[in-house]
Amino acid sequence: MPEVKKQVPLEFEKPLNVLAQQIDNLESQLTEQPDLEPELRHLKEQYTSLRKSLYSNLRPIDRLAIARHPERPYTRDYFERWDPEWIELHGDRHGTDDSAMVGGLLDLGNDLKIVAVGTQKGRTIKEKQSCNFGMPQPEGYAKALRLFKHAEKFGLPVVTLIDTPGAYPGLAAEEHNQAQAIAINLLELSGLTVPVVAVVTGEGGSGGALAIGVANRILMLEHSVYSVISPEGCASILWRSADKVSDAAQSMKITAREILELGVIDGIITEPLGGAHKDPDATAKAAKNAIMAQLSELVKLSCADVRNDRQNKFRAMGKWRDQ
Amino acid sequence: MDLKDWFAKRRERRERENLEVKQLLPTEDYCALWKRCFQCRELLYTRDLRSNLQVCPHCQYHFCIGAPDRIEQLADPGTFEEIDAEMRSSDPLEFVDTESYRKRQVSAEKKSGVVEAIVTGTCKMNGHLTALGVMDFAYFGGSMGSVVGEKVARLVERAIELSCPLIIISSSGGARMQEGILSLMQLAKTSSVLKTFGDGGNLYISILSEPTFGGVTASFAMLGDIIIAEPGARIGFAGRRVIEQTIRQKLPADFQTAEYLLKHGQVDMVLHRNELKDKLTKMFEFHKKKNKEMDKALVQSSSKKAGGK
């Protein structure tokens, strides 16, 4: 049975929604006119096949829309599904608890206890405001760093979930040295002797994302994106036009598949058809399995090897020519 | 011959000379006889400006300067040995916006006189061996792509090898968009090698010049043991316009200037360009001693261990 429940519509899903509406109409008439049954079945088949073909030919801009879908599971949704009794830890210990960065202690089962950290977008307007739409302040990065050090001290593996438009561009953020907050995290993460696995679950927005993304293994959800600047920003700088977002998204190679081909990430986690928001439970389970598979390998390495593995990984990144 | 012809001929001759003599000299700057100060609007004779280290003699405005000029100002004459001089971007994304990245590279090379946004090498500074990296804003806005990241990483490794201080002078708009995610990864790469460098007890002085933003401040530029900013230089993470659009309020006039950063505890000092070389030398002397003591201690402890066996 195709799902015809109406949700927040995506631009590229418009033809699907038209079909869904027709199916709805027919179904309501079905009790009075049972002879409509074959037509209904035909429409439903059409719906399924159209959806399949739409999702197998997604443009980067479409994936961007899915990655930013307001119903997409956020960091807390994953944590709660992985360990309903997870222990949240708060604060940067210097006067602030940035809600855009959450973290705590999670028991993934199978004797795997971790420190998990991730950026958090809000669901309701109020939450969105308090989380700054998922854009951490320098204090948020300091909070993450504090948790990384906790993990290091007690030998716990680190898992980070990335879903942020980027670090917050604000007056106070600059005064409190946003740039250095990110730089310090890059430096310290690269020196950890515990395994780190990062998963881009939605938007991987530039330095603000990388600040919790210097990991031994980097995974991306199928429809998530990871980029050096938002396609909107890139379009306005290089094309000097706001309507070239699709071109910018295409040129920058922001999708999981393209980034895997560039050798930056280690794997892609498949999402349910229609995107992670269609089935958060299944998505969380798939993500957990992928993380556990990576961690079970990494925990076998010695401390020095874990650190070297991570440093060598990033040392090798980049492409150039010597003439 | 009217005046226009005279200038044209002169420019031609200069270009020829520049090509023949030093390929490192940026051409266009040297063709113009006069330059107007961006701050006090005073007309300056370029030769005077050059001898004054590209600082306006009237209002002390520090002009943005290219890598070759900067190296000439800081390195003892004839001591600079460039490394990775021919490393260029391979255009990994085959990026095209309104023009192709390849084409833009060629014109940037012509405009700036350098082949990438950073020149790296070793030199002597008042006799002290130093690993020196200088960014050049004229090349692609000093942006960091794979080449800048790799050259910085190799420079840091050279400094580890030579056990000498490291100086990087930044001037950059941030990460290079045309290399997408690979540019972003350079932030992690450069920070990671600096971690190893720092663990070895080596001194890294970061100098921030007009302008330093984005991915460069969010990585190696802000990781110096000592951070020096040039007067009036604009330094920050996000650009002023982006912040104004986000918070919808006017920012203070001196927001993100070197002096503003000093007030907010983000840099150690704001130094006039003519003091730079001597101050750096002085700092080397402080940290050299410490390093030697540490080396000695290390040698002693390891020889003790060896003796114990």
Q: Can you give me a brief rundown of this structure?
A:
The complex is a heterodimer of chains A (323) and B (309). Chain A is of the alpha/beta class and 323 residues long.
Key descriptive features of the protein:
heterodimer, A: alpha/beta, eight-stranded mixed β-sheet, 15% strand, disordered N terminus, B: 309 residues, alpha/beta, 2-enoyl-CoA Hydratase, Chain A, domain 1, two-stranded antiparallel ribbon, 46% helix
Give the uncertain stretches of chain B in residue-range form: 21-27
What is the rounded distance between the termini of chain B?
87 Å
Residue share in β-strands of chain A: 5-15%
Helix-and-strand structural type of chain B: alpha/beta
What does this structure look like?
The complex is a heterodimer of chains A (323) and B (309). Chain A has helices spanning 14-29, 37-56, 60-67, 75-82, 125-130, 138-154, 171-175, 178-191, 206-210, 231-239, 245-252, 256-261, 280-298, 303-315; strands at 87-88, 101-107, 113-119, 158-164, 196-205, 217-221, 225-227, 267-269, 320-322. In chain A, 49% of the residues are buried. Chain A has 323 residues and is α/β, with parallel strands linked by helices. The longest helix of chain A is centred in the first third of the chain and has 20 residues, at 37-56. In chain A, strands 1, 2, 3, 4, 5, 6, 7 and 8 form an eight-stranded mixed β-sheet that branches. Chain B is of the alpha/beta class and 309 residues long. Chain B has eleven helices and ten strands. In chain B, the strands form two sheets. Chain B has a seven-stranded mixed β-sheet with strand order 3-5-6-7-8-9-10, sandwiched between helices. At the A-B interface, helix 7, helix 8, helix 9, helix 10 and helix 11 of A face strand 4, helix 6, helix 7, helix 8 and helix 9 of B. Strand 9 (320-322) of chain A pairs antiparallel with strand 4 (87-89) of chain B, so a sheet runs across the interface.
